[in-house]
Design goal:
About 4% of the residues have low confidence. Helix 2 packs across helix 10 and helix 10 runs parallel beside helix 11. The chain has 11 helices and 15 strands. The chain is globular. It starts with a strand and ends with a helix. The strands form 2 sheets. Strands 1-8-2-3-7-4-6-5-9-10-11 form an 11-stranded mixed sheet, with helices on both faces. By secondary structure, it is α/β, with parallel strands linked by helices. Bound molecules: threonylcarbamoyladenylate and magnesium ion. Magnesium ion (MG) binds next to loops. The site of threonylcarbamoyladenylate has 26 residues, from strand 5 and strand 6.
């Protein structure tokens, strides 16, 4: 059952408690309603994709109560600091290199080395983020392929029964998603136009390149290279060869010098939550052990299995 909470003290406290406990809570931001979960828990983040029915693991925006807390998870340069002081809290998302100390689950960034951070201005969002005290990963709170919700009723019609609670604070004010600017390279790139006009950004940091000039960056989730470990990956494998590390699923008992299991219980939610971290870990350990590749067991293709197989397929794709 999905609880309907109001944005008073009790409602905010309940919403924060549910998120801290690994639950899913839709909450208002000034742009659109987001579907929030603890960004440091892979299983909680996996549940977001399951509830939305997202066919792919797109990277998610992490929400924070202040620039200070946001910048604890990324490497912020002068441009980032200038934009943050001009537009935060507000409808601007910054994509920055994630820092080594960041505890954000690999699934929240879809395995990318960058992290999208945002400090929303909606009073209920700010109170919730303050009370939760953890980074909250949140895509828009709609079913995959539907338009973003700007009122709690939109969220109810898409996600009722699929999430733990909806924090209702009436219609959102901006109604269109945040502007996303990528600051991981030498020139700033506009990944998505949104609540803050690009002209306003340019008054603060100078030229912001249109995304068309950097089409490859615009769809980070689509770039095979982002998902490819250093070693070759062989998917739908029956068993590891002598020179391969093994990534298992469910009750397999294969012997390999380097082996991990995505989910001994054969849970696709758990497998999704572990996937990116497991690939990173196996890649590192297999290289040290002098192995030649990573073999991955067949993963079912239903529910989150579709997205898992999409990402594994990219990891295994021939390298250009
Ligand atoms: O206004 C908003 O931004 C809303 C509210 C809830 O904050 N959120 C939202 O999230 O629109 P979503 O998931 O619907 O869109 C996030 C976009 C996606 O297109 C994703 O590819 C991009 O942000 N994104 C996230 N992390 C990224 C990264 N590390 N690099 C590049 N793009 C990223
Ligand atoms: Mg969306």
């Amino acid at each position: 059952m999905t609880e309907r909470l109001t944005d008073d003290e009790a409602g905010i406290a309940r919403a924060a408690y549910l998120i801290r406990s690994g639950g899913l809570v839709a909450f208002p931001t000034e742009t659109v309603y987001g579907l929030g979960a603890d960004a440091t828990k892979g299983v909680a983040v996996a549940a977001i994709y399951a509830a939305k029915g997202r066919p792919r693991f797109n990277p998610l925006i992490c929400h924070y109560p202040s620039a200070e807390t946001a910048f604890a998870d990324v490497i912020a340069d002068d441009r980032a600091r200038a934009l943050a002081s001009a537009f935060w809290p507000g409808p601007l998302t910054l994509v920055l290199p994630r820092c080594a100390e960041s505890r954000i689950a690999g699934l929240a960034t879809a395995g990318l080395a960058s992290l999208a951070v945002r400090v929303p201005s909606h009073p209920a969002a700010r109170k919730l983020l303050d009370a939760a005290g953890i980074p909250v990963a949140a895509p828009s709170a709609n079913r995959s392929g539907r338009i973003s919700p700007t009122r709690a009723d939109h969220v109810v019609s898409g996600l009722d029964g699929r999430i733990d609670a909806i924090l209702d604070a009436g219609p959102t004010s901006v109604g269109l998603e945040s502007t996303i600017v990528d600051l991981t390279g030498a020139s700033a790139v506009l990944l998505r136009p949104g609540g803050v006009p690009v002209e306003s950004l340019e008054r603060v940091i100078g030229a912001v390149a249109p995304v068309q000039a950097f089409a490859a960056i615009s769809a980070p989730g689509m770039m095979a290279s982002h998902y490819a470990p250093g070693l070759p990956v062989r998917i739908d494998a029956q068993a590891p060869r002598a020179d391969e590390a093994w990534l298992g699923f469910g009750q397999d008992r294969h012997e390999a010098a380097v082996a991990l299991n995505l989910s001994p219980d054969a849970s696709l939610i758990e497998a999704a939550a572990t996937l990116f971290d497991a690939l990173h870990e196996l890649d590192a350990r297999a290289s040290v052990a002098g192995l030649a590749g990573i073999a991955v067991a067949a993963i079912p293709r239903h529910c989150l299995g579709a997205a898992i197989n999409d990402r594994l397929g990219r990891a295994a794709a021939p390298r250009g």
